[in-house]
Design brief:
181 residues; mainly alpha; 3 helices; rod-shaped
């Protein structure tokens, strides 16, 4: 009788190991998914940062154009008010001013493009980290479930071995024969 109890406990232990592995596997998968969600927030932040960079460039260019227009108008009025024509030194200064202004706009556009590319890299990196987090959760789930199945097999084998060692199979066979005849 004691052997039957030991066998039952071994089977129950195996089943509990299996269930614990399943539960732990579900939790590992959930943790991997939650980590991925947290990582994906970085993507949203980088997308907003891109929008801010683009808006800043537009605003900066508008302000520079307005300032430059006012500066050029003042310089034009000063030179023409002195009776100078549009030829010669004042004209050369205006042309140089325009060149410098266009250069500043180009530098701002270049710097903004570099910052946007950095944000694109951050977005791609976050996507990869999120994917790896999900894959890690899946791998851990598989490992934990395999441990649970191993516990089930070990418990079942131990229970069956205990029954066999106690001669339980011949006893069960005899009971079955008695019941069916």
């Amino acid at each position: 009788m004691l052997d039957l109890i030991v066998s039952g406990l071994q089977l129950y232990q195996g089943y509990q190991s299996y269930e614990a592995g399943k539960d732990a596997g579900k939790m590992a998968l959930a943790i991997g998914a939650k980590n991925a969600t947290i990582i994906e927030r970085d993507i949203d932040i980088a997308m907003r940062q891109r929008e801010i960079l683009q808006r800043n460039l537009e605003l900066s260019n508008q302000r520079k154009r307005k300032s430059f227009g006012a500066y050029q108008a003042g310089a034009r009025n000063a030179t023409l008010g002195q009776g100078m024509t549009s030829r010669g030194t004042p004209q050369d200064i205006f042309v140089e001013n325009v060149k410098e202004f266009n250069f500043e706009l180009a530098v701002d556009a270049y710097n903004t493009e570099i910052a946007l590319l950095e944000q694109d890299d951050l977005i791609e990196e976050a996507k990869l980290r999120a994917e790896i987090s999900r894959m890690g959760g899946q791998a851990e789930k598989s490992a934990l479930m395999a441990q649970g199945k191993s516990g089930l097999i070990t418990g079942a084998a131990g229970g069956i071995g205990t029954i066999a060692d106690a001669g339980g199979f011949s006893y069960l066979n005899q009971v079955w024969t008695d019941l069916t005849t």
